[in-house]
Design a protein that fits this description.
By secondary structure, the protein is of the alpha+beta class. The protein contains four helices and ten strands, in the order αβββββααβββββα. The strands form two sheets. It has a five-stranded antiparallel beta sheet, with helices on one face. Strands 6-7-8-9-10 form a five-stranded antiparallel beta sheet. Strand 3 (about 45) and strand 4 form a beta hairpin. The radius of gyration is 17 Å and the shape is elongated.
Length: about 200
């Protein structure tokens, strides 16, 4: 997996799915599917490791630009406006790179399942600004990121709204571990939930 791959997938999520969805339906929330990620409202768009599915039609991704893919899908490319200051940094002319895309998507699928197994009625959301899937329970954020400046690979995190101290909490926003170091993601979330409750 490369940073270019992560930027490409993030760009697809933000510019091709979330932006058009926000303009049409007023929400930036995305969802994880069994083989990728998708909009939750119109327009009906889904990204897999090699294609954008628009209304049942597959638009190939490899070697094309974000703008070309958006055009083929019939949507106007562009990030949601006025909602956040960070994001993918991707642009319409960026060529899509897919080396290792399946690993990022697999991390999201595993993360989504582990988050749903935590119980409660919180529904995991793939957020396009940070490109992570997460939920909040009892004033603690739980999720899986595709990677960023904190950890440069897919990782899981537990982020209490109020800072905690101790060995478990290893980053400024709480605890984070690379997915490759977590054979049992559910156990990591459970430990984070328990330690956060201890204060």
């Amino acid at each position: 997996m490369t940073n270019e791959t992560r930027r490409s997938l993030h760009g697809l999520a933000e510019l091709v799915l979330a932006g058009p969805q926000h303009r049409a339906s007023g929400t930036i929330r995305l969802r994880i599917t069994g083989d990728g990620f998708a909009t939750v409202a119109a327009p009906d768009l889904r990204v897999t490791a090699d294609a954008l599915v628009a209304g049942g039609r597959r638009v190939p991704l490899a070697g094309r630009t974000l703008g070309e893919v958006a055009d083929d899908a019939g949507v106007a490319i562009g990030a949601p406006r006025g909602l956040y200051t960070d994001g993918s940094g991707a642009a319409s002319g960026d060529r899509i790179v897919l080396d290792g895309a399946a690993a990022i998507i697999d991390g999201f699928v595993v993360g989504d399942a582990a988050l749903r197994a935590m119980g409660g009625d919180a529904v995991p959301v793939l957020w396009p600004e940070h490109f992570d899937v997460g939920i909040s329970l009892d004033e603690v954020n739980f999720g899986v990121s595709a990677g960023d400046g904190t950890i440069d690979e897919p990782y899981a995190y537990v982020g209490p709204w109020q800072p905690r101290s101790g060995d478990f909490w290893n980053v400024s926003f709480g605890a984070a571990r690379p997915l490759r170091e977590l054979p049992d993601l559910g156990a990591f979330f459970a430990e984070g939930r328990r330690r956060a409750a201890e204060g």
